[in-house]
Automatic annotation (TrEMBL):
Lineage, broadest ranks: Bacteria, Bacillati, Bacillota, Clostridia, Lachnospirales
Name of this chain's protein: DUF421 domain-containing protein
Signal peptide (residue range): none
PANTHER family the UniProt entry points to: UPF0702 TRANSMEMBRANE PROTEIN YCAP, UPF0702 TRANSMEMBRANE PROTEIN YDFR
An example Gene Ontology CC term for this record: plasma membrane
YetF C-terminal domain span: 80-170
Pfam families linked to this entry: DUF421 (PF04239)
Length: 183
């Protein structure tokens, strides 16, 4: 195989293999998955482990160029991103796991529940929709009433009650006070 064709073929093969293994970010990978990624990297570099520095630099430049081309097509070519990176996949709907999708993604309920707890969500039933993003991150949309109380919400509630009952004459400005304290 010609030298300049090797990095192109190896790049496409590596991306394809990594897509097959799933879409977890490095931080979410298990030890065997991390070893596999490092091994693929070593295997891809192996054909270029040459004493000729120029060939090694050329191969590295081709890899970087291919990555830039890949990212360009992801951004500008409709449909390419879905093929190359994947799409958002629902994993929870109305507080229930979508087991068929979990199986496709090679995720266990236990792994998802770990992320749910890390996000501070006490119960699966609080989740309206849970997704796995193409970058391996989880996204959760909470059901109405399960969202955390924000300062703006508290300000609205206090003003609604206290002004209506004429306990205070002027609205409470919690958000403005917090902004002043942060400066």
């Amino acid at each position: 195989m010609p030298f300049l064709l090797k990095p192109i073929v190896l790049f496409v093969v590596a991306v394809t293999l990594l897509r097959i293994t799933g879409r977890r970010s490095l931080a979410q990978m298990t030890i065997p998955q991390t070893v596999m990624i490092i091994s693929i990297g070593a295997i891809i570099v192996e054909p270029f482990a040459d004493k000729d520095v120029l060939k090694t630099v050329t191969a590295a430049a081709i890899y970087i160029g291919l990555l830039l081309i890949f990212e360009f097509f992801e951004f500008y070519a409709p449909g390419f991103e879905k093929i190359a990176v994947g799409k958002v996949m629902d994993i929870i709907h109305e507080g229930n796991f979508l087991r068929k999708n979990l199986k496709k993604l090679k995720l266990t309920e236990s792994e998802v529940m770990t992320r749910v707890r890390q996000e501070g969500i006490p119960k699966l039933t609080y989740i309206e929709k849970g997704t796995l993003e193409p970058n391996g991150e989880f996204g959760f949309k909470l059901k109405r009433g399960a969202e955390p109380l924000r300062v703006q919400d508290m300000e609205y509630i206090l003003n609604k009650i206290l002004l209506e009952k004429q306990i205070i004459d002027e609205p409470i400005q919690l958000v403005e006070e917090l902004e002043k304290q942060q400066l």
